[in-house]
């Protein structure tokens, strides 16, 4: 069997506002004036992707998906945010996300080519779209860590990506 070389690896990265515990333990990162912490499973996925990309001289694309804000009154009723406010929120989210990803690159991606992609959307669709855009050879992503029952009711990003991706998907367990 021929050895597989992964030249274009997509790695979705999850982070959230840092907990007091993460700040006290030094696991928090300041990005865009906010303290954030990366999910441990995302860090494991990134570590695996760095090893694979290093071995094949490939490129990693880090993807962070921010929540979308709708400007339609269908969701908000008679009070809606003006389009300019929504654009400003998306711009600030992108700035914060890029700062967090840049910190991650500096700390974990030495010697590997890395690109960054950030934008609003529904996570599984954004992962699939980005994989198609970069013509990914591999997606390395973290499992959510939800129970089987929770995945049944709310779905799983990893489950959908596995079913619909046009390239192999390596899922790193949450624990």
List keywords for this structure.
175 residues; alpha/beta; Rossmann fold; 5-stranded parallel beta sheet; 3-stranded antiparallel beta sheet; 7 helices; 8 strands; 23% strand; globular
Structural overview:
- It is a single chain.
- With 175 residues, this protein is an alpha/beta fold.
- It has a single domain (8-172), classed as HUPs (Rossmann fold, 3-Layer(aba) Sandwich), CATH 3.40.50.
- 46% of the residues lie in helices and 23% in strands.
- The protein is built from seven helices and eight strands.
- It has helices at 20-25, 40-56, 73-76, 83-108, 123-134, 148-154, 157-164; strands spanning 8-12, 15-17, 29-31, 34-38, 59-66, 113-120, 138-142, 169-172.
- Strands 6-5-1-7-8 form a five-stranded parallel sheet, sandwiched between helices.
- Strand 3 (29-31) and strand 4 form a beta hairpin.
- Helix 5 (123-134) runs parallel beside helix 7.
- The chain is globular and about 55 Å long.
- The model is unreliable at 149-154 (pLDDT under 50).
Give a quick precis of the structure:
This protein is α/β, with parallel strands linked by helices and 175 residues long.
